Amino acid sequence: MIVEWDPARPRKKVTGMIKEVLAGGGIIAYPTDTVYGMGCDLFNIKAIRKLYQSKRLDSKRALSVICRDFKDISTYAVMSDPAFELLKGCLPGPYTFVLKARKIMPKLLMTDKKEVGIRIPDHPVPAALAELIERPIINTSARIAGKEVLTDPRQIEKNFKDTVDIVIDGGIVVSSPSTVVRLLDDTIEVLREGKGSLRNILR
Question: In the chain, what are the domains?
Answer without folding.
Answer: 2-200 (3.90.870.10)
